Amino acid sequence: MKVIFWDFDGTLVYSNPLWSNSVFNALKSVCCNTTVTFNEIRALMASGFTWHTPNENYSEITNEKWWQHMNTYFYNCYISLAVPHSIAKQATVRIREFIKRKENYALYSDAVSTLQELKSKGIKNVVLSNNYPDLCDVLKELGIYDLFDDFVISALEGFDKPRKEIFEAARKLYPNANEYYMVGDSVNADIIGGSQAGFKTILVHKGFNEQADYCFEDLQAITDLF
Q: Both ends of the chain: CA-CA distance in Å?
């Protein structure tokens, strides 16, 4: 049995800048005349997330606690930009709604066909993503949830790629598999992390990198490996 672990954002979908847009639009939804700019929000989204500091152990901050942790950060971002406290509170609680909107995500044109073909060949497709706890809701909205056999999401595991713990959790789902592959667009999180875990690695959409076992510009090319 072969198992392919898939990163989500930047690999199966493109959505940049996802968090910046969601945090900015949540603010605008409760204060349409805000003087805060998108670029000010975007600068703050370059840090603060658990995957920005993957060396940390977040096992005590999972599921709803992950959102509580992040909402504190988002609220403080708004306050740092002189957003009034009442507006900051209202905007913060709306970010979750905005981040889950289907229209934020565009599937790569060959994502569905690739997943379908691999599934037809008996390959196990598993999401392995540094992401928020509700990711499966978005997968359902995008119509690709049923193309996966399981899901390993950092905000539910308490560890982010490239931490070995999240890869170990992924491996434990299929302890009898004879080959594990990690597909992603991040050299650090997916390629280095996957390689250190003993997975074969496939870098996509990013050109050539010698640290990856395979490099493909499109997803469909992966099917030729099996």
A: 11
